[in-house]
Amino acid sequence: MTDDFEMHLVLPAPPETVWAHLREPELLGRWFGWHHDGFDAELREVFVDAVVVERPGRELVIAGGHRFTVDGHPAGSTLHVSRVSPADGSAWDPSWRPIEEGWVTFLQQLRLVLDLDPAAAAGTRHTVMRSGSPRAGLVTDAGPGSAWSARLFGPEELAGTVWFRTPHQLGLRVHGWGDGLLTIMTDVPGGEGRVVLTTYGRSDDAAAATERDLLRWWAGVTDTVPAS
């Protein structure tokens, strides 16, 4: 990643819907982050306590560090995320780079939610994350929109679409898991890699079984896997 950070997404929903997903707790809970004991407190910390709304319905700044701007687009909306220069003119702290990669992951989850059928997006979400250092050549090098299939773990052949690709991340939409999203991130300056799996509308038992298989696979394809 260079010293600059910008992200630009075309989203399949009107600006007022995108804005609601940045402000309303129930909608935030459909896409942001991964589940843990402090999830509700984290939502409040990031999207309430740390937010300055600069243009209602259009623009806000989170934690003084990143500006989110929503505009109209023929396909729905555009969401532009850019880094805010430190007010004192100091150099940007490189420890924020893993946080910015986190925004890439999360906002692709937002894009997924807006692309799903509303009933599916409102279904129970299961999201799991594990850190680690994945080995090179782990998964397909196909470009966004391409079909893919693989036996990533176990006997089941998974298939889907390459959802997005960046220098550090690959997102795979997995059709057999209710259009789940599997995101694999390689190491970034100041941080590790990680795997994030999000699915909707599956039973707790089915999601837990997939999670066990995923984490067993991840342990075998990473050099180190912290317990967190």
TrEMBL record:
<protein>
    <recommendedName>
        <fullName>Activator of Hsp90 ATPase-like protein</fullName>
    </recommendedName>
</protein>
<dbReference type="InterPro" id="IPR023393">
    <property type="entry name" value="START-like_dom_sf"/>
</dbReference>
